[in-house]
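User: Fold this one for me? It's Exopolyphosphatase.
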Amino acid sequence: MVSTSSPQDHSHYFVAIDLGSNSFHMLIVRENQGVIEVVDRVKDMVQIARGLTNGILSEDAQVRALTCLSWFKERIQEIPADQIRVVGTKALRAATNAQDFLRQAEQTLGLPIQIVSGYEEARLVYIGVAQTISHDHRKRLVADIGGASTEFVIGQDYKPKILESLTMGCVTYTDKYLSDDSGQLTINSKSMRRAYLAACEEMQGIRRRYLDEGWDMTYGASGTMKTVAELMPEGTPTGTIDADGITWLYDSVVSNGFAPQDNIPKARRHVLAAGIAILKAIFDQMQISQLHVSNAALKEGLIYETIGRLKHHDIRDETVEQTQTKYHVDKHQAQRVCDTALALEKQLAIPDNGVFNQSKILGWAAQLHEIGLSISHSGYHHHGKYILANCDLAGFNRYEQFLLSVLVGMHRRKIDTQVLETLNDGHRESILNMAICLRLAAVLNRKRDSLDCQPVLSRTEQAISLAFEDSWLDNNPLTQTSLAQESNYLYRIGLQLEIQ
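Assistant: Here's what I get for Exopolyphosphatase.
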């Protein structure tokens, strides 16, 4: 297993593992007096998206993936788990049997795997690229062609502004447009044209907005970009791709019936033609004249985010504050509920599950529990749940975002037992305890004023005890009535609330 020792033991080493649809990447770095030094890079073109048929990951794809993860595990066993982040992207988002595979993958690697949204994938790519280029205040377009999706971001310095993830990638386009029924490559003018036009059509929904926003420099991330840059005509500046060069390369592939093969690994060669078709569409639709290839991408973004979190700079805190502002949340009330909920949670001493930070998730849910009020007071917890389940939250993986939506949806009135049943078996009890803390905190702060008591909370398997100072409840009859109602709601799910 990965080391669970304190961060001080190996405080200079950090790991990012990107389970991409085309390649699995592992990056190991050392922080040396503020400078990030690369210790090791490992890449395996697992091409898990090639095994995605009718939404199901094939056995062969899963075997390739698990074999790769066993190699990764050997290299990182002595590094603390809180200094390692593992994320999955488009193919694992799309696979209907992803949960079964992820259970095996987590056992093999000895670490939790976070599935990120397309929006979050784009943001991490931009952070990785932005950290490795000059801080020149110019606006940038960053494009990353992956195995099953392509990300587009316009940003300035370290701040992404517009983010999109489109369903087009070199692996999926190879299978869909450049392969026959037996899986053999069929690269010709007709098939390349189909791939190119499909990419153009996919980009139509974002093209106008990006062109209207504008940018000064264009950067490309991913193995496809690096390979294409190496194939540019003589005289093209090193590490760049220009419009004439990508057109020449596209025409060359069409004329010769195959992708250029000089010094290109077989797995990359298999999907390169589709990548070239997608890249030509990007140049044409975005009216790009020259693109600079970046050596950084999502995994570098993960490294910088992990280091930032350990140094108490967490983008998720900024996201929560921005979301509060957007939905006109009463921040003073949110903080009162947050403080009370965390004080109650501390008394319950909920065991750490090793997958998500329970105190942080509960605190953020408390900060956001009233976002639905901006829509309607009636059933505002349902509105809040919907917003959190469907909006883009920078820094949050999909499971964390799901948990926020569940807690906000359960923070008042009837507790949906069907929602409880959908929760991970190993997490259900801790999530229910978090929901209880949030519910009680909301009730206790209903006056929307500073809480002048510190109730004592304890719980057994079927009972919850909440004890107050003498006469406090008598002096707060509305709270007493609300707690009695809360007792009825908890009774419906088999819990008895004892108020003392």
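One thing worth pointing out: The radius of gyration is 25 Å.
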